[in-house]
Every structure is written in C-alpha cells, then in structure tokens.
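Listing S7. Sequence submitted for prediction.
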Amino acid sequence: MATREFGVLIHGAGWVSTQHIAACRQNPHTRILAISSRTIESAQSRATGEGLQDVAIYDDFDRALGHPGVDIVAICTPQHVHCANVLAAARAGKHLIIEKPAGLSAEELRAMQEAVRSAGVRSVVSFVLRWNPLFQTLKRMLADDAFGAPYYVEADYLSHNGSWWSGWAGANTRAQGVSALLVGGCHAVDALRWFAAAGEFEAADPIEVFAVAGGYRKGSRREYNPILNRWIENAPPMEYDGLEVALVKFRNGVLGKVSVNADCIMPYRFPLRIFGSRGSVMDNRIWSHRFPGQHDWIELPALGPDSSDVRHHPFQGEIDHFVECLLGGRESHCNLADAIKTHDIVFAALESERTGAPVRLPRS
C-alpha cells in the first residue's frame, strides 16, 4: 500500500467542516495544512475549536490554493458559491471533495465537470449516505441477489428545515437554495439512484422524471423546531414549496418515487423501500428468498440514516474511500460526473412541476 500523504485545505468554516476535519485527521494519508473562510476570525475559530495547531489561516481562497503542499480541497462553503470554488480549485490542480448540493443549476454543474476534466483532477461529492452502515449492508445484499432484480424503489427525505440549522440563512431563498429537493432532498434522490442499480458500486441512470409540488409552508414566517419540539414566530420564510414528489424512470427499467417534505411536523426521518423480484426492504427490515423459513420481517442491526446531525453522517467512510481512490489512481463511484445525474433529477423535477409534463433525460 502506498504511504503518500496528501495535504488538505478546508475551505469554509461552517458546521459541516467539523466533520471533514475530523475525518481527515483520522485518515493516515491526509494532513490538514490550511483552513480558509470569508474572514480570518471564522477560519481561526474553526481551527481553535477543532484543536488544530500549525495550520495556515486564510480569508483569500486564491492565496489558500497556493499554500505549499495542498493536494486536496474540501469545499465546505454554502452551495451558491460551490461553482466558483470548484472552478478555482480545479484550475489550481487540486483534487476535490465537494459538499452537496454541488451546484445550483445544470449549467453550473457542467462547467464544473469540464473544469475537473480539463485539469485531470479527481472528485467526490458528499452524498455520504452511500457509506451509511445500513445502506452498505443493503447494497451488498442487493448485489448478492438477496432481493432479486430491483424493479421499484422509494426514498423520502422528511425534515422540517428551518433556522435551527446553521445553513438555513440563504438556503431558504430561491436564489441560493433553489428548492427543497435540492437543499436536502437530494440525499433521497441519490439513494433512489443507488438502490435502483444492483451493482454494489453502481447507481442507476435516470431517463424520465415527472414531479408535482405543494405543501402549506411556502412564504410562512411560522416555523416548527423539531429539535426543541416548539414553534417559532417571525422566522425567515421558505421561498419555495416544501413538498415535492417525483416519479423517476431509469434506463435499466427500474421505477422510483422520491419525495422531500420540509413541511412535516415530526422529527427527521429517511424512509427507504426496495422491491425486488425475490425480496423486499422496508427501512432496516428485509424479506428475502434466502430465508425460506422466514415468517416475519428480519431486522438488520446496522445504523440507519435517521438523523439530520452531521455528526451522525459517515464522512469518515467518504474520505477514506476518496483517499483510496487517489492512492489507486481511480475515480470514485460518487465523483462529480456521477453526482450530476442525481442533480439532473432535481432540476428535471423543477421543470416538470412548472410545465406539468414529464422531462426526458439526459438533456441535450
């Protein structure tokens, strides 16, 4: 095994950066060399809070990219600046860890992909649930024919997003958040693609999307806090529909249904259903031809995705995987090119909601 050490620049000092820092510190092949943010104070505060010493602090991204020894840049900034950040980092020849959603439009994403391709750098997008223990177990079982060939998949993202979340400022707007499906529901969209393909490291390609939107919360200043179980008045309003439901047809013939519900009054949940020709999955419960004497659902003890706290998310698995890809000279199954297909479903859903018609993919 190669023993190379990769220097890391953490760009962005918000909540999610804590998990990128923790994962990079645990990986034996990465060393955090610098943190950059909009202000020196926020970058220094993050370094101090995470106990990092001897790291450079920047409030200028271009200068940070020039820091000696940086090989990898973790883009932990708000989503509306991801495109500019990725273009700059790719031009500087840096490998990229990109927080989701990767961009705000199909045009942004394709510009980012062209920059990555031209620079010859590698990338991974933080659809971290691909490394969730339950997801990994189910995906391996699916690849091992425990459920037969999948023919229908469901995934839902149920979260009353609001000002309890430090990233809500800006993400609640059309300009910077775009839609509920993009802001958080893209995790469910990616899960749909992931389980619609039988291969252990394969995600299905979408070819058609039909979607509707609704809910009650758009424009309302009354907000529910699911962490504290109480209501908040005069909160920043959500400028888009909180409920989106999409039907997706995949190239391999699998059908899927995905939804985001940012209007629900309940704690965060991430329901998952997989229906195959020889078995089924209901969250962590399975029914399989492998157990001919089965008379009740078998519950898997693996940790599921039912928490919105970034500390619960498997960033360590993502970072370790990406480093292995760099050491082995191969692309990630969750690189930017693949993640664009997940985002394409989101943008197609928005178009379908607007026109009332199905949208074919890929777009020309």
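Caption to Listing S7: primary sequence and predicted structure tokens for the chain studied. Residues 271 and 352 are 24 Å apart (CA to CA). The mean pLDDT is 96.
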